[in-house]
Amino acid sequence: MSSSDSPTLRKSEFVRSALFAVLAGLLLVAAPAGEASAAYYHDLEKNRQPCSDCHTLHYGEGDAQPPGVEVGGPFQQLLIRATTNKLCLFCHDGSDPKAPDVLASVIMYDGSGDEHSGAGFFDNSGGFANVKGHDLGLNAPTVPFSTRTNVTLTCASCHDPHGTPNYRNVLTAPAGGVGMTVEMARDVFRNQPPGDPPSAAASIAAYRESNEGYKANTSRWCAECHDQLKPSVNNPTNRIHHLIDVPIDGAGYPTDPAHWGGGVGNGFGDVTGDETEGVPRLRFQVSGATDYASARTVVSGNEVMCANCHLAHGGRHEKGLVWPYKDSGGPVDKDSGCNQCHNY
Ligand code: HEC
Ligand code: HEC
Ligand code: HEC
Ligand code: HEC
Ligand code: HEC
Ligand code: HEC
């Protein structure tokens, strides 16, 4: 895995030397804004990220608090806000129409043709338990399907604010160790790239759910933290969990591949929660995909992955599920997702 690890290493070395260069510049003369400041947000491919969006180097050394920086500093890692979650949500809470909104309630994708983004959204900005997905800024003494204990999630538990080779800048090793790269254009394909420079319309197009097609590794990436799923994740002789990476039309499976391929009737519908049974077609994986179009082609051998059923951040339904399988009140869409594949 050393070849896939090295870009990450190079990047963090770059970051350290860039910070050093900026610091040295500030110490010698009142340096003009560094070149990076003229560039765009989190531009993964070109590695252009303005450090000053997130860091301030001399909080409290002058008389005044630096402009645009939260009161009460200096903060850890020279951040401009007290916590990483606050920093990221300053833009990603819906207040900046160019930044994908990840905090409920999200209206940015209304009218886009999709019900949500690829990752869905968090129920609150941190500190409160959320039954509808991942909790931010709250200690989890135990973690489901995991040997890990006392984990407090921040945006930086899963994303590298400085970029990685991975899609959506996800960390290669969120739980340490060797980890799992999930690269854009290798494991995940996209139709529209994000705007450069970012714009509201381009962000809606780039981050809506159907802009991505999945080929490999996203489920195994989740199992980095949910490590107890690793041995059973696609082991047909150890079916203690629903398998992933397996085709819907696998021999002997209790599925209805023709029903999945057809896409009409039991389980399929236009809108989740419209009082008519059926939800939009779930996402799926195509391990032989070579591009966005092939990763999105519906066939009876499409494969199972975590993101069929779960949203990475969370969403409207319990356990971050895409449809209301666990919700109370007997919603008509309760079993819809299951029936797209099983047709019971
Ligand atoms: C999008 C916001 C953002 C941008 C842009 C950003 N950083 Fe950071 N940086 C962070 C956060 C958040 C942390 C703390 C990570 C954590 O919580 O674990 C951090 C941590 C660091 C650290 C501490 C060591 C480490 O890697 O954790 C250094 C050094 C650093 N940043 C340098 C830079 C430089 C230099 C730039 C510009 C080239 C930059 N950062 C741009 C958000 C950012
Ligand atoms: C950085 C480690 C980490 C990664 C990576 C991770 N999780 Fe989690 N997950 C947790 C922790 C910690 C909890 C327990 C606290 C909570 O609910 O947020 C959890 C809880 C959950 C829950 C239960 C949520 C609830 O409301 O009860 C689900 C479902 C879940 N994870 C699915 C996933 C999926 C799917 C992925 C991959 C997209 C993933 N996780 C990736 C750490 C992680
Ligand atoms: C448990 C891991 C995890 C945590 C914690 C997490 N993310 Fe994500 N995030 C992901 C994954 C995985 C994706 C890609 C999902 C997909 O499209 O397949 C993603 C996608 C995104 C996207 C793309 C837009 C979208 O909605 O799909 C943005 C922006 C983002 N995350 C920002 C954040 C911010 C800001 C935070 C903290 C408030 C955060 N993330 C916390 C795992 C996480
Ligand atoms: C100053 C505003 C701002 C801050 C602060 C900020 N973001 Fe963003 N972020 C954006 C914008 C705007 C985009 C859309 C970029 C584009 O379309 O080119 C974006 C895009 C993203 C994406 C999608 C990247 C991709 O591959 O397409 C992720 C993931 C993300 N941000 C995570 C974070 C995290 C984690 C933090 C905190 C460490 C953070 N952001 C802080 C404005 C911000
Ligand atoms: C076919 C749908 C489906 C797939 C695929 C799937 N899950 Fe789930 N998951 C569920 C359902 C439904 C629940 C709610 C509990 C239950 O019914 O077992 C759940 C619950 C969970 C929980 C919370 C358990 C708890 O006790 O709170 C975690 C964590 C989780 N899944 C992670 C994952 C990860 C990681 C993957 C991929 C490796 C994955 N799931 C794949 C449907 C799925
Ligand atoms: C994307 C397609 C898909 C979806 C959605 C789906 N399944 Fe499955 N299911 C499969 C496949 C493929 C298998 C065979 C592989 C396996 O055993 O995991 C399977 C197997 C099963 C099995 C038999 C497991 C065994 O040990 O023999 C059960 C029970 C099951 N699914 C229940 C569910 C339920 C409940 C839901 C909804 C929460 C659901 N499935 C959603 C594709 C799907």
Global geometry: globular
Quaternary: single chain
Bound molecules: heme C
Pick out the low-confidence regions: 1-41
Query: On the 0-100 scale, what is the average pLDDT?
Result: 86
Quickly give the structural class.
mainly alpha
- The rounded Rg comes to 22 Å
Q: How many β-strand runs?
A: 4
- The number of distinct helices, counting runs of at least 4 residues, comes to 9
Instruction: Tell me the fraction of residues in β-strands, as a range.
Output: under 5%
H and E order: HHEEHEHEHHHHH
- Helix percent reads 10-25%
The tally of domains stands at: 2
Largest sheet, described in full?
Answer: 2 strands, antiparallel
Strand line-up of the largest beta sheet: 1-2
Through-space gap between termini:
43 Å
Short description:
With about 350 residues, the chain is mainly alpha-helical.
Task: Write up what this structure looks like.
Strand 1 and strand 2 (149-152) form a beta hairpin. The strands form two sheets. This protein has a two-stranded antiparallel sheet with strand order 1-2. It has helices at residues 2-28, 84-92, 155-158, 200-207, 218-225, 257-262, 292-295, 306-309, 336-342, and strands at 139-142, 149-152, 188-190, 212-214. It has two domains: 1-82, no CATH class; 90-344, no CATH class. The two termini are 43 Å apart. By secondary structure, the protein is mostly helical. It binds heme C (6 copies).
Give the helices and strands, then pairings:
Blueprint: H1 2-28, H2 84-92, E1 139-142, E2 149-152, H3 155-158, E3 188-190, H4 200-207, E4 212-214, H5 218-225, H6 257-262, H7 292-295, H8 306-309, H9 336-342
This protein binds heme C (6 copies).
Residues 12, 15-16, 18-19, 36, 49-51, 53-55, 77, 79, 84, 87, 154, 156, 161-162 line the site of one heme C (HEC).
